[in-house]
Amino acid sequence: MAGATRGAGRGIARALGEAGATVYCTGRSSRAGAVDPRRPETIEETAELVDAAGGRGVAVRVDHTDEAAVERLLARVRADHGRLDVLVNDIWGGDALTEWGKRCWEVDVATGFTMMERAIHTHVITSRHGLPLMLEGEGGLVVEVTDGAFAGYRGQVFYDLCKASAIRLAYAMSVELADTPVTAVAVTPGFLRSEAVLDHFGVAEESWRDAIARDPHFAHSETPWLVGRVIAALAADPDVKSRSGQALTCWDLARHYDVRDVDGAQPHWDEHLDAAVEEILAADAPGADDVMLLQVRGPQIDFDASRADQRARIAAFLARHAPPPDPSAPST
């Protein structure tokens, strides 16, 4: 589990433990020294949660930009078990680097390249050294964790490059793995109630519904367990090869495998967004948050033929209520 310190990575590690797996929980934040003083989570804590879920957690401090360190990790897995069944690339580390609101001609290039190194190069390095061990076995699953399964835009140039690259990497690997028993896919969670998101709203997992008054969309959020449970279901599916190379969503997989979140919920993020968009378009009297939602959602569904009509109506709506900014004006 590459990138298991917090968020989706921690949820996936716990769910694989729930399925009885031995999970190597890797990341940079350790009790021996954290890399982000604002976040308390560590790989050791994740490994303990894997144990509590019923599996065996093994914490290994790894900087996945360091190829030699990744080689040592896989050598250890080989020595301990002789095989690798599931490889999950969830390494990210880009939240603090994403310059939201800055356009592509305004961003800091060095910051963006650091994000790409953390979120793309690490995945390539880890797959490069994990796949040979997987190919020695009878099959396996590589999962690229991304944000959104769409071909459209994610709102910031480097963020978009990173998340779209994870999808492309899964596809590229699937082509080269076609005549092998190993499958590569990309998977996106929905509105994730990660530790950082809960902190942002000032709530705990037990009291998360208190934040719905601030953001009604939060009612359709999910814990990191859910994406972990659908990945565990994928790994156990004897027909998983039929999904090779695809960008899959947590919500569709949850329905397909009848997997539920810890509270029994089965949120479907796309259905919720489509309904929210249609409600705004029908009312034709938006608030500021409504305009922002449509400005975000419109580019996401570019190239989606099934939503071409909705895309056109969003564009017309925004032309009436939110004229595009002057591209020559500096961002704030």
Would you give an account of this structure?
This protein is α/β, with parallel strands linked by helices and 332 residues long. The protein has two domains: 7-267, NAD(P)-binding Rossmann-like Domain (Rossmann fold, 3-Layer(aba) Sandwich); 270-321, no CATH class. The chain has eleven helices and six strands. It has helices at 7-18, 43-53, 67-81, 109-135, 157-176, 195-201, 224-236, 250-257, 269-283, 288-300, 308-321, and strands at 22-27, 56-61, 86-89, 140-145, 182-188, 247-249. The longest helix has 27 residues, at 109-135. It is globular, with a radius of gyration of 20 Å. The two termini are 39 Å apart. The mean pLDDT is 95.
Brief summary of the model shown:
The protein is α/β, with parallel strands linked by helices and 332 residues long. The chain is built from eleven helices and six strands.
Topology:
Elements: H1 7-18, E1 22-27, H2 43-53, E2 56-61, H3 67-81, E3 86-89, H4 109-135, E4 140-145, H5 157-176, E5 182-188, H6 195-201, H7 224-236, E6 247-249, H8 250-257, H9 269-283, H10 288-300, H11 308-321
Parallel strand pairs: 1-2, 3-4, 4-5, 5-6
Helix pairs in contact: 1-2, 1-7, 3-4, 4-5, 7-8, 10-11
Kindly list the characteristics that best describe this protein.
single chain; alpha/beta; Rossmann fold; 2 domains; 4-stranded parallel beta sheet; two-stranded parallel ribbon
Largest sheet: 4 strands, parallel
| Whole-number count of domains | 2
What is the arithmetic mean of pLDDT? 95
Secondary-structure element string: HEHEHEHEHEHHEHHHH
Task: Return the CATH topology of the largest domain.
Answer: Rossmann fold
